[in-house]
Amino acid sequence: MKTYLPHYFKRIGILFVSIAFILSCISGVDDFRKGFMKGYTEQQGLDEESAKVDQSITPYFTKEESDMYANISLFFSITGFFLYLFSKEKIDDEFMQHLRLKSMLQAFIVSWIIYGTAKVFSSIIPMDGIYILQMQLIVYVILFQRNKNKELSEEEEIALRN
Amino acid sequence: MKNYIKVERAKKDVTQATLAEKIGVSRQTINAIEKGKFTPSTLLALKMARYFETPVGDIFELEEGE
């Protein structure tokens, strides 16, 4: 697979993904607060209070604002992963190309296994296409790093042999 | 396919890292080729042969059945 971007674009990709994570946390902060308060009041045995949590908590954001943050987060996340995907390694030789293709195939298979398993519980876990793409990109990055680091160093090989 | 890269490296007393640097690839690439996990391209094989001053056929050998 051809890579087009210089190596430093990896850091830009990581920065985009970090921004996506922060925006995702912001968009879910009201749900987190409600969930936390419900769990806390139920744990305290205050079932009546727990039922009123939705009305008692004043949300920081409207639903439209939350959705906007979630959509912007998704954009940053996918863009960041694509920048990472298309950036060169420090030494981008034919073996790295081989590892990329191998990782991409593995990511495709693993993500479809995850999707297939999640589909069994589809009423609980909705999976839009864009989220499947995001999952494939995340799995690819993890597998590529794993495949790169799997090659032992000479010192490690000697240590294992001894 | 068998290869004798390790033998050639020992003759010339070079590490994987040095060989990798000389022919412009990563050390992981040399490691993967030596272990038989990866088959190098013709270009890479020729670069190795030039570095070791040895014919390509002396470094790489087809196994029986290939």
From TrEMBL, chain A:
Keywords: Membrane, Transmembrane, Transmembrane helix
Superkingdom, natural source: Bacteria
Sequence intervals crossing the membrane: 12-29, 68-87
Protein name according to UniProt: Uncharacterized protein
Organism: Ancylomarina euxinus
Automatic annotation (TrEMBL), chain B:
GO molecular function ontology, one term from the record: DNA binding
Residue span(s) of domain HTH cro/C1-type: 5-59
Pfam family, one: HTH_3
Keywords from the named record: DNA-binding
Domain of life: Bacteria
DNA-binding recorded as keyword: yes
Protein known as: Transcriptional regulator
Organism: Ancylomarina euxinus
